């Protein structure tokens, strides 16, 4: 069975409820993996999910460990989550640069997908900072180094090419509600655009490949129409199979 490692796509919400003079707080933990998990498992893939708060403990520290997976997916997870484990940030000690490990994994023949979101590419307020990380060389697009969000609440439909990744998928895709603005690098395959900007781009790095999918694999940018689309599983399967060629 083909194995997929998904890092990120989780968050904690801490709310303050103010009721006149009195107030109280609540905290909830959520993930956005259910649509992606269901989709790829229906196509015969096995998914391992490491949420943001467990990256420093559970994300592989060697290329050999990453080689257990056919593709690594980063979704709504910023570079700081990889670069600032407690060992370095709180204790002032050296630690493994896991983004360098991902870089070597791809260079040696691995596959990497970065999906869009508020904490992807450069991200909201430029906080994701991948343009200053080892992955700047690996990704098939250039990160802007500033707030790169394009919010489209009225919805925007991507333009997809006749590439084999879209085989048996209609040309008319569901709408998206936003994406990360990037620019494609030279010698890459731009499979689809959105508002004229890169949407799906594939590039080679060393012996491996990387993919940029610049909108979200889940709501809110990934609309309900997209994540519940009958071709949502087909697209991911087609993409992963193409990366294996």
Structure at a glance:
By secondary structure, this protein is an alpha/beta fold. It has helices at residues 34-42, 55-58, 63-66, 79-83, 86-89, 98-107, 224-227, 232-243; strands at 2-8, 10-19, 22-31, 45-50, 71-75, 111-115, 141-142, 149-156, 159-160, 176-180, 183-184, 189-194, 197-205, 208-213.
Structure description:
- The protein has 245 residues and is of the alpha/beta class.
- It has a single domain, classed as Rossmann fold (3-Layer(aba) Sandwich), CATH 3.40.50.880.
- The protein is built from eight helices and 14 strands.
- The strands form four sheets. It has an eight-stranded mixed sheet with strand order 4-1-5-6-14-13-12-9.
- The longest helix is centred in the last third of the chain and has 12 residues.
- The chain is globular.
- InterPro entries: Class_I_gatase-like, GATase1-like.
- Pfam families: GATase1_like.
């Amino acid at each position: 069975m083909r194995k997929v490692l998904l890092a990120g796509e989780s968050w904690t919400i801490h709310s303050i409820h103010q009721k006149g003079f009195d107030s109280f707080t609540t905290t909830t933990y959520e993930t956005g993996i259910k649509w992606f998990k269901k989709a790829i498992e229906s196509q015969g893939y096995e998914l391992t999910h490491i949420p943001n708060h467990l990256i420093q403990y559970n994300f592989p520290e060697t290329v050999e460990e990453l080689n257990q997976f056919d593709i690594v997916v980063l979704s709504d997870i910023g570079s700081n989550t990889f670069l600032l484990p407690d060992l370095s940030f709180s204790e002032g000690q050296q630690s493994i640069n896991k983004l360098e490990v991902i870089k070597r994994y791809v260079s040696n023949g691995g596959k990497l997908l970065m999906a869009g979101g508020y904490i992807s590419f450069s991200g909201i307020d430029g906080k994701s900072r991948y343009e200053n990380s080892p992955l700047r060389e690996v990704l098939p697009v250039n990160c802007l180094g500033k707030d790169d969000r394009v919010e489209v609440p009225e919805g925007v439909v991507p333009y997809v090419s006749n590439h084999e990744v879209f085989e048996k998928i209609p040309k008319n895709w569901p709408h998206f509600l936003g994406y990360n603005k990037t620019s494609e690098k030279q010698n890459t395959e731009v499979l689809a655009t959105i508002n004229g900007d890169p949407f799906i781009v594939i590039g080679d790095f060393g012996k491996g490949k990387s993919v940029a999918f610049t909108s979200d694999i889940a709501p809110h940018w990934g609309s309900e129409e997209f994540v519940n689309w009958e071709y949502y599983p087909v697209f991911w399967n087609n993409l992963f199979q193409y990366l294996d060629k």
